[in-house]
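Reminder to self: tokens first, then the designed residues, so the page reads top to bottom the way the pipeline ran.
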């Protein structure tokens, strides 16, 4: 901040009135402003809507009463995923 502006602030608000003010506060508020602007842009963007049929057999799965995986099958499946 220039000395002229600093002296004007000191005269108007008093000495050390803005001693807490630092560049880090400006960067924090700049980041918050950017996030706020981005969230505003996302909130007004149109949503992609895909048409589908409930009778499509690729997404239509029948309800099963007992759907569970035993421990051995789970360990076998996870080991194949982790170790290729």
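Designed residues (84 positions):
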């Amino acid at each position: 901040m220039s000395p002229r502006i600093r002296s004007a602030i000191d005269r108007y608000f008093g000495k050390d009135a803005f001693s807490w003010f630092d560049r880090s506060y400006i960067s924090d508020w700049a980041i918050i402003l950017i996030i706020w602007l981005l969230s505003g842009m996302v909130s007004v963007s149109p949503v992609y809507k895909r048409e589908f049929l409930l009778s499509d057999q690729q997404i239509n799965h029948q309800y099963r009463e007992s759907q569970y995986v035993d421990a051995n099958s789970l360990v076998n499946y996870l080991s194949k995923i982790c170790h290729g």
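The helical segments are 3-13, 23-44, 71-83.
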